[in-house]
Design a protein that fits this description.
Elements (H helix, E strand, L loop, with lengths): L7 H6 L7 H25 L4 H11 L1 H4 L1 H4 L6 E2 L1 H22 L5 H30 L2 H39 L5 H27 L7 E2 L3 H16 L4 H11 L3 H13 L11 H30 L1 H13 L3 H9 L4 H30 L5 H42 L1 H6 L22
Antiparallel strand pairs: 1-2
Helix pairs in contact: 2-3, 2-7, 2-8, 2-9, 3-17, 6-7, 6-9, 7-17, 8-9, 8-13, 8-16, 11-17, 12-17, 13-14, 13-16, 14-16, 15-16, 15-17, 16-17
Length: 445
């Protein structure tokens, strides 16, 4: 079943998207931010250097890039709901195991290994969750809820980088006052364990609330599996203008992919090293809460902006708004202000632009690349390439920052965004959102 072929009977039986879209994408965001942000701060607290930390975290992001290898398998077996629930359960248990491993002498190799497992669970969850979203919603509903999708995905960012990082700071101080050994480690144990239990609870909720995301499938033989896999790949590269679209998707986040790795480290780096010298609690409040709140607002408004203007006309503006506010990081690295209101305002402006522009590449992949017989797998292919466009610059970002310094590094990331801005003027559109205001779907029983 596709979003364009929903019958009235199916509409009357399905739950309102508001009952599952927010929780689905919040659950999708939790393990992603655990691997890509919470682990970043944790290893920084353990004393790893920037170049090592950014390299490790970028390598941990490879499961999201390798999704095309196993995404066709999700077209062959069970329902997408089955994989969503299973990955949430396994991912939650993995976070609990990470918490238990942190007090061991070999914590680094144990935690990295389990983070890899968590990454594969999260990447598989992404494939299935996006498949449910595409299959269960019409094109208009996809446009109307794309902002909410991105918003609640990044509500997990507020929760992780904001609330949980703040909690790490509070617990670390309390454990220190209680003269506990390794107070920061104990704080991280509590936080990782709590997130794991939350993800398990969400898996139980989704057993009841999620639509199936299509009919249950079961391949009959190895030959059939191979034929299906080959058909998935061949049909993907037969799509109109596919190579131009893939180049654009790869370049879309070239600048932002570097900032999301170095930016959080800059906020906590000592002022003598060119950073702002913020504590975990300050980063949690300024970067996590206010900045991520601005991201959610930008995501929602970006979705409505696309629906009003049309994706083709909106695309250059989205690329510009995504990257231009990164000047805020450059300003902070030059001025090194101590006024928390000024820092909060600058970070909020940057995060608003990030949220506003990010929805453009998501909708482009959904409506220009995904449509067809294998929409889940094809969306995963495009999403994986987008992740490569983040991982490769992100892996080198710590090395680049070490040699350029924070100030020149933030100038560099703005320059790195120019190719996508130029290319956005030439992207062909065969369908997608029309230039009409979105209408939020009415409740369906």
């Amino acid at each position: 079943m596709t979003g364009s072929s929903i019958t009235r009977k199916e509409q009357s039986m399905r739950r309102h998207p508001a009952a599952w879209v927010p929780t689905l994408y919040f659950a999708e965001g939790l393990p992603f931010y655990a691997v890509n942000y919470m682990a970043l701060f944790f290893y920084q607290d353990m004393g790893l250097k920037n170049a090592v930390t950014t390299l490790v975290i970028s390598l941990l992001a490879w499961p999201w890039t390798l999704k095309p290898i196993w995404s066709p398998m999700l077209e062959m077996y069970k329902t997408k709901k089955f994989f969503v629930v299973l990955m949430e359960l396994v991912g939650g248990l993995s976070l609990v195991l990470i918490a238990l491993s942190l007090n061991m002498p070999g914590y680094f190799r144990y935690s990295v290994t389990i983070f890899v497992v968590l990454g594969f669970c999260s990447a598989t969850h992404d494939i299935a969750a996006d498949g449910i979203y595409i299959a269960a919603l019409s094109s208009k509903e996809q446009a109307a809820y794309v902002g909410w999708q991105g918003g609640f995905y990044n509500l997990a960012r507020i929760f992780s980088v904001g609330g949980l990082l703040w909690l790490v700071g509070v617990l670390g101080e309390r454990f220190a006052r209680a003269h506990a050994s390794a107070p920061v480690v104990h704080a991280w144990m509590v936080v990782f364990g709590a997130v794991g239990l939350m993800l398990v609870a969400l898996s139980l909720y989704h057993v009841r609330m999620l639509p199936t995301g299509g009919e249950e499938r079961k391949s009959e033989s190895v030959r059939q599996m191979a034929a299906t896999f080959a058909d998935v790949v061949v049909s993907f590269f037969k799509k109109p203008h596919i190579f131009l679209l893939l180049i654009f998707i790869f370049l879309y986040r070239a600048g932002e992919g570097q900032v999301i790795k170095v930016g959080p480290l800059f906020l906590r780096a000592l002022r003598t090293n060119g950073g702002l010298g913020l504590s975990s609690k300050e980063v949690g409040a300024i970067y996590g809460v206010f900045g991520s709140g601005a991201f959610i607002l930008g995501s929602i408004l970006g979705g409505y902006f696309i629906a009003h203007l049309g994706l083709k006309r909106a695309l250059p503006w989205l690329v510009l708004i995504l990257n231009l506010p990164m000047i805020a990081y450059w300003y902070l690295s030059v001025a090194l202000p101590t006024n928390p209101i000024l820092v909060t305002t600058a970070m909020s402006a940057e995060m608003f632009g990030y949220g506003f522009g990010f929805v453009g590449v998501i909708l482009l992949m959904m409506q220009e690349i995904a449509p067809g017989k294998y929409q889940t797998a094809h969306y995963a292919f495009a999403n994986a390439l987008m992740n490569i466009g983040v991982i490769l610059p992100g892996a080198a970002s710590g090395w680049i920052q070490t040699r350029l310094g924070y100030t020149h590094f933030f100038i560099w990331v703005i320059i790195a965004a120019l190719p996508a801005l130029v290319l956005s003027r030439f992207i062909p559109m065969r369908g997608g959102v029309q230039a009409t205001p979105p209408r939020i779907a009415e409740a369906q029983g």
